[in-house]
Write a structure and sequence with these properties.
alpha/beta; TIM Barrel; single chain; 2 domains; 388 residues; 44% helix; 14% strand
Length: 388
């Protein structure tokens, strides 16, 4: 297992880390009936060099108690806490009150039987979430939790233009940031520019979702399958995905779920033999990226020049989820994100201001309306024939 520095150089983290209750689990992309196998896979990984796990998104499960009780038992096993650093996520989506953060942190302490979590990540921060975060006084609250010994270090999970990272890093000396990052995300916010910004801020970076919630591993377009098969070096798609992330030396670790011990064994072997990608590898991956991007209908880059919306609708965020549905031939994941981000609580009024303000004149209003029809379980009316 290879290791990289994390948190001001006072801890070396395995380049592969484990994840429980990640997005693929809560959306059903990872078989929830196989949870015992997944936990056994974490146990295997921890015994083979993985030294950090993220306890993930239990808040989003209908009945988290039947899963977390088993995790609590695992964490109580002799030597586990000596070997593993524990990351937790606190969500900020929707319109939470300060008491919601207190309640969720208390639940995590009770569920997992842990007095002090090593890293607490404020989840899913974007420009508007950060404003709510500051208004509620959550940062002061979180700092008090560090002083009280409930949390050792603070970090945040970010999804927006890297420009807004400045406000966040100006507010507190964060030790770690987290992005969702795969080879499909290098030009999406915060993308590669965000990685550079975190490095310049002298913070560490971890990433999650290297397989786009496992959708890069299944229902692969025929053109992409051919590119993988024709590559000079034969690798599984999972190894390609992980190697691409590890090729960024600024990234300390990638957190991912394991569906069973066999997968954990494969992934740890990939980490053992990890080496930089060469020019031909990168060409192959770039061609695969093009295959997926050609499946999009709307070319929105989420620059957010169209914002704000008169009724506070996140047109670029919604458009991105619609493109996501098209690229990966899957509506489960974007529908889940559409729901937890509160996109379904507002109906588009059809004013068209977002489309008019778009520098490239993308049809954002149409994208929003198609998304609402799809994600609100209505019939999709021919949206795939619309031009950008």
């Amino acid at each position: 297992m290879k290791y990289r520095s994390l948190g001001n150089g006072n801890f070396d983290i395995s380049i592969l880390s484990g994840g429980l209750f990640q997005l693929d689990f809560v959306t059903g992309k990872l078989d929830q009936s196989g949870f015992d196998e997944q936990l056994e896979a974490i146990r295997f990984a921890a015994a083979n060099g993985v030294n950090a796990i993220n306890l993930g998104f239990p808040f989003y499960l209908d009945d988290p108690s039947r899963y977390v009780a088993k995790v609590k038992g695992f964490l109580a096993e002799p030597g586990v806490r000596d070997r593993l650093k524990l990351f937790i996520n606190l969500p900020v989506t929707g319109n939470p009150e300060l008491g919601d953060f207190e309640q969720r942190l208390s639940e995590l302490h009770e569920w997992f039987g842990i007095e002090t979590f090593d890293f607490c990540l404020i989840e899913d921060i974007e420009r508007f979430g950060w404003i709510r975060f500051e208004t509620l006084g959550v940062l002061d609250w979180a700092v008090e939790k560090v002083k009280a010994g409930q949390v050792e270090r603070l970090g945040f999970d970010f999804r927006d233009d890297c420009f807004f990272l400045k406000n966040i890093f100006d507010a507190y000396p964060w030790e770690v940031a987290q992005f969702r990052y795969s080879f499909m995300d290098s030009t999406l916010h915060p993308g590669f520019s965000g990685i550079d910004y975190v490095t310049d801020a002298k913070a560490s970076l971890v990433v999650t979702d290297p397989f786009k919630t496992r959708r890069l591993l299944s229902e692969v377009p025929e053109a992409a399958q051919s590119l993988w098969a024709d590559s000079k070096v034969k690798r599984s798609i999972a190894e390609w995905c992980l190697l691409w992330v590890w090729n960024h030396e600024q990234i300390s670790s990638v957190f991912t779920s394991f569906k069973d011990v066999n997968e954990a064994k494969q992934f740890t072997e990939y980490a053992d033999r990890q080496e930089p990608l060469n020019m031909f590898d990168e060409i192959t991956i770039n061609k695969v990226i093009d295959v997926y991007k050609k499946k999009r209908v709307f070319g929105c880059t989420e620059c957010r020049c169209c914002m704000p919306c008169p009724i506070d609708m996140d047109s670029p965020g919604i458009t991105a989820l619609y493109n996501d549905y098209l690229m990966y031939n899957d509506d489960d994941v974007p529908r889940f994100l559409y729901g937890i981000r509160g996109f379904g609580t507002i109906s588009c009024k059809g004013c068209g201001i977002c489309s008019k303000h778009c520098p490239r004149r993308y049809k954002l209003m149409e994208a929003v309306q198609l998304s609402q029809e799809l994600f609100n379980n209505k019939l999709l009316k021919g949206g795939q024939n619309e031009a950008t």
